[in-house]
Amino acid sequence: xxxxxxxxxxxxxxxxxxxxxxxxxxxxxxxxxxxxxxxxxxxxxxxxxxxxxxxxxxxxxxxxxxxx
Length: 68
Fold this sequence. Notes:
Blueprint: E1 3-5, H1 7-13, H2 18-25, H3 29-35, H4 45-55, H5 59-62, E2 63-65
Helix pairs in contact: 2-3
């Protein structure tokens, strides 16, 4: 079962840009852009934790397991 990061959808639901999230997190916009891509294969736990804290969401909200 592949794991997918729902960051792009969450940002769209909140009408927030990738650049705005990057600014709030004090990270490069490329970091957020990479995590919004459909083909993400790796992510650092501390980055995912930082996203969750910044957006006030749980890791369960950010990650989903999809059926193959």
